[in-house]
Write a sequence for this structure.
């Protein structure tokens, strides 16, 4: 299968899961008092799983389109788009920091559980999702007064999003583990 | 052109990022009310801040002109107010007397009589003139002047120099006041300047305390912020904080606030009270004043002189 088809299929798959399932189940934790409910987000995994060799300009455009699609479906104006833009820009520095070899040597492979080993991959996902969710919740709450609320919401949704992302990568690991040559 | 394209290519990622960022900010501002309002209002705030700074700078250079305009406006308003204060108005009502008292029925008042059907004259009192009569005692004109020299250190009499003189209609003896305070009386006039003997002198000024207690003010030559009033009766109740006003008997326009009572002393030797009054006028920092030109004062003085001669 060509890399384009794979990427497109992953895009459709992630958005199908996100919009049809995850957006319908606002999660609620009870711990002493009721914590704020939130939606688990997973669609930004698409940006995280793009091949390492994607150019920065393409990266920016892809992130914007991803965020905009989510915005269109969830009626949030452009908040997801902004969050995804920042996430897409910060992807290359994070990868450079986490991967042991220079990025040029990972010519056409995607970041994956197998390729990066478990702990680096989880760190990578956590860092990217942290950037995304921080900006998303900051713009959504839009207040410096509710900074504790923001922190709680950020922490819980970050953990849940990472768990969901890991489950997704485990289920669909077969296609990711392969090297793409094109 | 080639360099420009190179530049574009070099910063292409940044340009793209910023462009898409603004697109999403625009989308947020358009669709989300809360965030949008903040974005729009904060951008308005920045614009407003810049405009305010600009106008502040421009205004600084116009301050002198603005000040002069304000003083001129103010003098005009003072004039209007003073014209209302010293006036009496009443209606002149004359009534037509009944027919029996008049020896002859005047023709011009015919219309005032209504004949009843029985042929008897009814007595109708109708006002003939209803015009309002207004009497003004004063006709003040307040001329704004700048203080160009001021002294407060002489112990007997202090002089102030003003920037206007004969050419502006200022004459010797005219009072100089502020809105809320008195300054002095014109002592010498030249073509373009005038000197004023200020209140800070041993010349006495007639004044009254709030509850119509009359007395004479004078300066004791010590503190330019305080004047004294002596020889008040012991039974008069004067409390600290009462206001002191000018009277008609002084050469100042009546009812200008001079200051307030700051200290009350009993003097056993003369069996009297003496008070010190804090002036409203700040003589240390006097910049502007008004010379009061009263066009009716000459007439009044002439009449008074005549009466004294008789």
């Amino acid at each position: 299968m060509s890399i384009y088809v794979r990427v497109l299929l992953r895009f459709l798959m992630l958005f199908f899961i996100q919009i049809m399932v995850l957006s319908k189940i606002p999660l609620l934790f009870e711990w002493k008092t009721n914590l704020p409910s939130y939606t688990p987000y997973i669609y930004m995994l698409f940006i995280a799983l793009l091949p390492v060799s994607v150019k920065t300009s393409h990266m920016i455009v892809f992130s914007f389109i991803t965020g905009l699609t989510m915005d269109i479906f969830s009626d949030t104006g452009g908040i997801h788009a902004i969050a995804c833009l920042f996430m897409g820009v910060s992807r290359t520095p994070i990868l450079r920091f986490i991967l042991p070899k220079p990025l040029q040597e990972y010519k056409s492979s995607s970041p994956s559980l197998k390729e990066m080993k478990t702990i680096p991959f989880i760190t990578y996902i956590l860092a990217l999702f942290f950037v995304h969710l921080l900006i998303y919740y900051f713009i959504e709450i839009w207040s410096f007064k509710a900074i504790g609320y923001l922190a709680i919401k950020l922490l819980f949704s970050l953990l849940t999003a990472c768990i969901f992302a890991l489950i997704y990568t485990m289920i669909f690991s077969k296609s990711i583990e392969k090297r793409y040559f094109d | 052109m080639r360099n420009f394209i190179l530049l574009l290519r070099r910063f292409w990622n940044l340009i793209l990022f910023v462009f898409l960022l603004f697109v999403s900010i625009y989308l947020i501002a358009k669709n989300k009310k809360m965030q949008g309002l903040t974005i729009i209002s904060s951008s308005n705030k920045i614009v407003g801040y810049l405009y305010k700074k600009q106008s502040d700078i421009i205004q600084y250079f116009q301050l002198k002109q603005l000040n002069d305009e304000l003083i001129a406006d103010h003098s005009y308003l003072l004039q209007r107010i003073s014209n209302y204060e010293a006036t009496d108005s009443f209606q002149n009502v004359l009534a037509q007397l009944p027919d029996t008292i008049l020896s002859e029925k005047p023709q011009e008042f015919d219309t005032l009589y209504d004949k009843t059907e029985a042929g008897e004259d009814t007595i109708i009192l109708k006002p003939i003139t209803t015009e309002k009569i207004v009497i003004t005692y004063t006709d003040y004109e307040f001329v704004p002047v700048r203080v160009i020299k001021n002294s407060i250190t002489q112990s007997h009499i202090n002089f102030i120099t003003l920037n206007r003189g004969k050419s502006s209609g200022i004459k010797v003896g005219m009072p100089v006041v502020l809105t809320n305070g008195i300054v002095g009386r014109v002592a010498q006039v030249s073509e373009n300047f005038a000197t004023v003997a200020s209140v800070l002198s041993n010349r006495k000024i007639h004044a009254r305390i709030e509850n119509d207690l009359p007395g004479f003010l004078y300066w004791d030559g010590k503190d330019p912020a305080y004047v004294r009033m002596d020889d008040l009766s012991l039974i008069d109740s004067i409390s600290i904080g009462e206001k002191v006003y000018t009277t008609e008997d002084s050469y100042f326009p009546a009812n200008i606030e001079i200051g307030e009572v700051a200290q009350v002393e009993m003097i056993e030797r003369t069996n009297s009270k003496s008070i010190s009054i804090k002036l409203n006028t700040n003589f240390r920092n006097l910049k502007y004043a008004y010379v009061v030109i009263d066009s009716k004062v000459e007439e009044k003085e002439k009449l008074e002189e005549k009466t004294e001669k008789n």
In short: Residues 147-171 of chain A form the longest helix (25 residues). The helical segments of chain A are 3-21, 45-48, 56-74, 79-98, 113-116, 118-141, 147-171, 173-177.
